[in-house]
Every structure is written in structure tokens, then in C-alpha cells.
Amino acid sequence: MTLKINYINKTSNKLSANTVLFSNEKYQINNLKKYLSDSEFSYINDLLKTSDLKKNLFVFEIDSKKKVVLISIKNNLKISEVENLGAEFYGRLNHGKNSDYNLILESINSKEKNFIGHFLHGLRLKSYEFKKYKTKKENRNISINVIGNKNKPSTQNQIKFKAIEEGTFFARDLVSEPGNVLHPDEYAKRLSSLRKDGLKVNIYDEKKLKKLGMHALLGVGQGSVRGSYLVTIEWNGLKNNSKPLAFVGKGVCFDTGGYSLKPAKFMEDMTYDMAGSATVVGLMKSLALRKAKINAVGVVGLVENMVSGNAQRPGDIVKSYSGKTIEILNTDAEGRLVLADALTYTEQKFKPKFIIDLATLTGAIIVCLGSEYAGLFSNDDKLSTQIFKAGETVEEKVWRMPLHKNYDKLMNSKNADVQNINYVGGAGSTTAAQFLQRFILNKTPWAHLDIAGMAFSKYGGALNSGGATGFGVRLLNELIESNYE
Question: Do 94 and 203 lie in a common domain?
């Protein structure tokens, strides 16, 4: 399917093609007469008198060749509601072979200055599909002609929305790829292509990681025939040497659980255990494409957690990059081992203003929050508040969960400095976050987002049609734009 959005300056009245018009929440349409014939206006007005006006939009079949879509703009719509409205409109489009719609900007009467920008942003996000491996290709074309100058989004805003969409789609593409295609070797190769967007990319292979002492990360990947990598992606949008904002992602390209083997019923979904890294990568791409006026760094650890004669065993002890030793009690608690080395390295190498890590870390967070909120854990109240507000704005919501010294004690090991699971049981997401916090050595403001319930949706959501969601790209873009640019 191909979706095209064309901006056309001149409005011609009495349009003959499919037409998209906007009204107030009471569906009063007298001001729209000039875009409709007398018979069309009477027909639509009569139908509205007997309709449920609580609906967000109506599609009126004028004849076999023309539809009129009437969309209600309610008072005081939030930005996320405008985007959801665009997504709903996309869901109602004629999905025949070819569909053309004329969207009339002059019919919009909204207090939101960038109403149509957000509306089309939601529409495009909803339009995403991953059908790369379908042998039968669909030949559908949808064109939306955005007509007029009034309410037209600025060129700068068009660039910004396109950048965020491309970053989100890149993240969704990565998560959607099967494990036999997007293994760590291929993933690292794809990240090198980001250099063309103006990003500085450094790839550390196993030889370099051994030299650095990243044995926690390497231990996870040692059972795979594929390599293990740490990749840093830098964006320098400021000419000064100000501290960067840092984002760290878990990139377990496939997770069998290792010798602590997962049940077969759930293993097929483990291709998306690298979704945290995909969010970081998508974010960095967005920042580069929109020329964000900040310095930022993304760091991702790429591994594959497999079973073999060389795989890590329960009971093994490894030395992390921080110097702390870790006892491996469960090889399926592997993401935190990857993040442990990545977090310490990020803090020491880049000395950032803050670090936010993202990971599909625990099933326990799904028990807590389902698929409505990501779990937020942090050592910093200001950063937590900023993330929460950004999530509310773009409707990628987070909920703060507790950290406490009493939980921290549960991660103490008898044989090493720390163990990788809480053997007592309970508080699985919190104790995982307590583990990660031990590898923030210099009290850098830090937040951990457990996105296990948010990264993938079997049934679809407001702005996605099922599958990979790209959760976090828009959230972190909003965080940066509202607080740090």
C-alpha cells in the first residue's frame, strides 16, 4: 500500500472527488455549503438530524464515485486526541485499489495551531504495515490532497513530523524482523548505515569488548554462533561541548532463555526482545533527520541468548565492565546483564546529563501494568516528572514504580557482589531495576523504562495496526523537545 500526502495551495469549490471536511462538535455545517452542491448539503444535513452526533466522524456515500467525510473537532482537544482522530480517519478510508481524498484546510476551526500537522501525523503512524515477507503484494494507492493555505503546517513542522515518523517506522521495522534475519551481525551492519543521516556510529565487536572487560554482556552472547556487539550512536546538534543526553537500549535479538529455557508457547515472540534498542536507534535517527539542537548519544548492546555447549550456565560468575562481579542464577534474566555493562560504559565514557535505558526486561511489568503503561524506575524526581508528562502528551504513558534499599538487599549474592535475580520471589520488575541501578556509579540522573508490555501489540492500538509499536520514540522526542532544546 502506498500513501501519498500532497499539499495543494488553491481551493476549488464544489469538489467532485472524495472530500474531507471539518465541523464543530455539534456538526453544524452551514459554513461548509460552498464545498458541496445543494443536493449534497441537503442530503448530509438531513442524515445528521437523525444520527448519533457523539461519533468523531461520518462517511456519507454521495454516489458510487464520491464520498464526503465529515469530521467533528471537539472543544479543547489534546494533541494526542487530534492524532488519534487522524488515525481513526485512516481506518475509515476506502481501501479499494485506488482512493483519492481532498482535505479542505479552510474548513478547520481549531484552537490547536498545528491541528492538521498532528492529524496527519496520527494518520501516517496508523498507516504503517510490515509486509516485507508477504509474497502476494497489495497494489493499493491512497492519495490525500491537502488543499489550501489556511491552517497549513509550516515546513519546519512538516520536517519534524516526518523525522519522528521515519524514526518510529525504523524502530518498528527492526522489531518486526525475524530472528534469523536480524541477528546481531546483521543488526550492527544496519546501524552502520545511520552514518548517512549525519550520525557518528562506533561498533565494538567481541575482540574490543573483551579488551574493555564487558564480560556481563559477552556472557549472554557466548552460546551463539553470532557475534556480540556494543554500538554507540552520537548526534552533535550543538557546536559546544555540552554534556549529551544518553539513551541505552537492550538488544537481545532472540532470547531462548538460555539454559533457563523459556516455554515453547512464548518463545516465538522473543524476536522483539531487542525493542529497547530499536527505540534508541529510532530516536537517534529522528534527532538527526530533524536536526535537533541538542547533543545526544544512543548506546545499544546486541546479543543473541542461545543454548549450546558454550552457553552461559546457572551458577556462573562474571566480572562486569564496572568491576563488580555478578552471579548468574537464571540465564533468562539476561537483558539486565547486557544493560549493566552498557550503562556503566555510557556513564563513564560520555558523562551525560542523564541516562534513560529502555528494555523489554520483565514479564512482571505486564502483570503490574498490562499494555497501558510502561514501568518507570528512577533515581531522580525531576527526570521522572519530565518523562511522565511527555508520555501523557503523546499518549505513550509511563507509571513510576518504587525503588528502595530493602528491595536492593534481595539482589545481594553470597558468592559475588550481586546476583542477577531475586531468588526470594516477588517484585520482579523492581528488583531488576535495583540491579541496574548498581551499575550507575556516579549518581548520574537515571531512569529505566520497562517496555515489555508496550513494544508489541497483537491487536493494534490507536496509532498502530498491530505488531511492533515503536513505543518510546515519540515519548523521548517529546521529552527532548519540551525540556532540553
Answer: no
pLDDT in tens, 308-333: 999 999 999 999 999 999 999 999 99
Question: Cα separation of 160 and 49, whole Å?
Answer: 40
Catalytic residues: 262, 336
Q: Indicate whether 147 and 167 sit together in one domain.
A: no
Q: Angle CA(411)–CA(414)–CA(418) in degrees, nearest 5?
A: 35
Residue 423 and residue 442: Cα distance in Å, rounded?
A: 28
**205 and 109 in a common domain:** no
Q: Three cell numbers at 194?
A: 545511520
> What is the domain extent for residue 268?
160-483
- Whether this model's pTM surpasses 0.90: yes
Q: Report the domain count for the chain.
A: 2
Question: In whole angstroms, what is the distance from residue 375 CA to residue 397 CA?
Answer: 9
Among residues 48, 54, 55, the alpha carbon closest in space to that of 28 is found at 48
C-alpha cell, 24 = 464543530
Say if residue 267 is exposed, middle or buried (CB neighbours under 10 Å; 0-12, 13-18, 19+). Answer: middle
The kind and range of the H/E element at 336 are helix 335-350
Q: Can you give the pLDDT at residue 13?
A: 58
Alpha-carbon separation of residue 45 from 29, 49, 65, 362 (angstroms): 8, 7, 20, 53
**Mean pLDDT score across all residues of the chain:** 95
